[in-house]
Amino acid sequence: MSDLRLEFDTLLLASARLGYIAGDLKETGYHSTTALDVDHGRLRDALRDFRDAWEVRRNRIGQELDFIGEYVKAVHDTFKELDADYAKRAQKISQALPTPEATPAPQVTPR
After folding, report:
1. What local confidence, expressed as pLDDT, does residue 66 receive?
2. Distance (Å, rounded) from C-alpha 89 to C-alpha 9?
3. How far is Cα of residue 100 from the mean position of the Cα atoms in its chain?
4. The pLDDT value given to residue 98
5. Does the CA dihedral 69-70-72-76 come out positive or negative?
6. CB–CB of 63/22 below 8 Å?
7. Got the DSSP string for 45-106?
8. What are phi and psi of 6, to 5 degrees?
9. Given CB 3.0 to 4.6 Å as the disulfide criterion, which of 25, 72, 88, 98 pairs with 15?
10. pTM, whole model, 2 decimals?
11. Cα–Cα–Cα angle for 16, 18, 20, rounded to 5 degrees
12. Distance between CA atoms of 24 and 29, rounded to whole angstroms?
């Protein structure tokens, strides 16, 4: 059985960074008035379509990043609890075991 090693601080940092990025995406809208400044009708329509599609995708990406950040935090919390639980169990087991008595070294007789 292999050991599983997790860097708890790294998990927390990843979760926080994902939340920060998601927040930025949600707060940063497409505020450009470029579409209104363009006189060519088809280009103006294309810019508006892009703006509308980006708005939807940007919000969806923000929601997905929030979900992933929450999931990473849940993984952190779960493994932190498991680590503490296993440490308590190991301590109880080690306290319940009888202490080994010193056994004398075998006697070696020269030939």
Report:
1. 93
2. 24
3. 44
4. 77
5. positive
6. yes
7. HHHHHHHHHHHHHHHHHHHHHHHHHHHHHHHHHHHHHHHHHHHHHHHHHHHHSPPPPPPPPP
8. -125, 140
9. 72
10. 0.63
11. 70
12. 9
